[in-house]
Amino acid sequence: MKKFILPLLLIISMTSCKKNQEVICDSSKPGALQLKISPVYNGKAVITNPDLSVQVMLSFNNTESKGDNPENYNKVIKGKNGDSSIICDKLNCGLYYIRVRSVDNLSGKVFSGGTSLVTEQNEGILALVIELAQE
Q1: pTM listed for this prediction
Q2: 115, 23 contact by CB (below 8 A)
Q3: With contact defined as beta carbons under 8 Å apart, do 36 and 130 qualify?
Q4: pLDDT (tens digit, 9 = 90+) per residue, 56-89?
Q5: 77 within 8 A of 55, measured Cβ to Cβ
Q6: In sequence order, which residues have a C-beta less than 8 Å from that of residue 67 and are 6 or more positions away?
Q7: DSSP 8-state secondary structure symbol assigned to residue 82
Q8: What is the dihedral of CA 96, 129, 66, 106, to 10 degrees?
Q9: Burial class (CB within 10 angstroms; exposed 0-12, middle 13-18, buried 19+) of 51
Q10: Mean pLDDT (the chain, rounded)
Q11: Using one digit for the tens of pLDDT, what is the confidence trace for 106-119?
């Protein structure tokens, strides 16, 4: 009987061990990562206000710019009045292209900039500063 129980216990213990779970980085899947995007122009923070709109556009699983048309991106977040940073939350690890576009509603001037991001981080906060240039 003991000869039968020992191998059985060994088999049960081997099958109940947790295997290392590999994190699959797919930026189109929701996660616990937050991006804090801070646009700057000539070294100064760009602050959203009624005369200056700012939006962040995210492209998932991509590291190339898709231009300034928000329809070309997977997620668009508009800046709130008085904010110098825009928070993009519920993101996952993976590949991103991040485009920031700002429009001065008084002069009609457009400012934009972008960067690619490749991250294995799937939780916490990543802070990015994106330099804008006048178009």
Answers
A1: 0.81
A2: no
A3: no
A4: 999 999 999 999 999 999 999 999 999 999 999 9
A5: yes
A6: 99
A7: T
A8: 150
A9: exposed
A10: 87
A11: 999 999 999 999 99
Distance spanning both ends of the chain, measured CA to CA: 82
Spatial neighbors of 126 by CB under 8 A, at least 6 apart, are 33, 34, 35, 36, 117, 119
Give me the CATH code for the 25-134 domain, please.
Answer: 2.60.40.10
Distances (CA, A) of 38 to 1, 4, 67, 90, 104: 69, 65, 19, 18, 17
**Nearest alpha carbon to residue 55 among 45, 42, 69, 41:** 69
All structural domains of the chain with their residue ranges: 25-134
Distance CA 88, CA 115 (A): 15
Q: Can you read off the two tokens belonging to residue 111?
A: 């400012």
Q: Are strands 94-104 and 44-45 parallel, antiparallel or unpaired?
A: unpaired
Residue 9, pLDDT above cutoff 50: no
Separation CA 36–CA 49 (nearest Å): 18
